[in-house]
Amino acid sequence: MAWLILILSGMFEAVWAAALGASHGFKRLVPTLIFLMSLSLSMAGLAWAMTSLPTGTAYAVWVGIGATLTVIWGFVKGYERPTIVRVLLLVLLVGSVIGLKVVS
């Protein structure tokens, strides 16, 4: 159950990162509210998962999921250009997160 909560928390990390960018410095109400709600859910889920998972592994998985999804969102929205190197680095990041889960 902790792993599922951690994965969902990582997904909420990507949501708050995207909402933070869309808030334009907290000047837009709806993205700011989405940022605050998803940040709260993300942190609460991470904190809960860390009660039964090793801190370093939980944090690395949370960041890895959030970072990967945030970059993919940037690709989809056209904010970032997907290059072979970027995609390979994301694959490496995901592989590293999976590896941490396997060995913990």
UniProtKB/TrEMBL annotation:
Its main location: membrane. The keyword Iron does not apply. It is a multi-pass membrane protein. It is found in: Cell membrane. The chain crosses the membrane at residues 33-51, 58-76, 82-103. It comes from the Bacteria. Keywords: Cell membrane, Membrane, Transmembrane, Transmembrane helix, Transport. The keyword Coiled coil does not apply. Belongs to the drug/metabolite transporter (DMT) superfamily. Small multidrug resistance (SMR) (TC 2.A.7.1) family. PANTHER family: GUANIDINIUM EXPORTER, SMR FAMILY PROTON-DEPENDENT DRUG EFFLUX TRANSPORTER SUGE. This is Multidrug efflux SMR transporter.
